Amino acid sequence: MKFRCNPALLLAFGLVMLKAATILPYLVKLYRDMVKLDGSFGRNGITSAIISDLLSGIGKAGNIQVNTGSLFVLNGAQLSSSTNGQGDAGNITINARDIVSFEGFGGKSDLPSIATNTVVDNGIGNAGNIRVNARALFLKNGGQLNASSFANGGGGNIFIDTSDTISIDSSDKQSGILTFISGNTGKGGNIQLTTGLLSLMNGVTLKEYSVSNFVPRKQKQATSLG
User: Fold this and answer.
1) Residue 215 and residue 4: Cα distance in Å, rounded?
2) Which of 43, 86, 165, 212 has the fewest CB neighbours in a 10 Å radius?
3) At 42, phi and psi to the nearest 5?
4) With 0-12 CB in 10 A as exposed, 13-18 as middle and 19+ as buried, what is 84?
5) Domain range annotation of the chain
6) Pairing of strands 78-80, 113-116
7) What is the model's pTM?
């Protein structure tokens, strides 16, 4: 699924599902300035989402690409390209000129605000890669990037490149960047962060079973740990 935004605005509140089969013909050339998914009014664990999952069978989950000015994923909303079948999860790519922000309920819900392309339950395959290119990335109150494997397969790689800031606040003990395995096969992926200022606060999780790289940009403060 490719999601290109033209001069407008996408706002999704409560129970809004944008699935690959229905979204592709309609939204390919819409909404460039801001994308906002807000799960505030979601019920029964169902919330606003852009979904391109492989739910069963043989195949591959679709890719999700969001090109926008700013992306806000709030209150349990999600981008999901995971696999529960026989095949790999898809890749998630976010290109934003300004801010990318994932902010959850702050520990008040089991639903994080998340970009996820994991291998779940009965899945056989590898998790996808997550790429974020922006001026600034904020993860807080249950904001996550997760390319882990909970079944049979390896974790995906996560690449974040911001010209200004990566800020992660885990005061809720849920926010973080994750690519690990909890199944019996595969290995965790890599996490690579390229930024001017890296701010990690309140027990942030950068969890992987492979190599984690931080690349500071020149002429900016390299790290700020809280």
Assistant:
1) 29
2) 43
3) -65, 150
4) buried
5) 2-225
6) parallel
7) 0.80
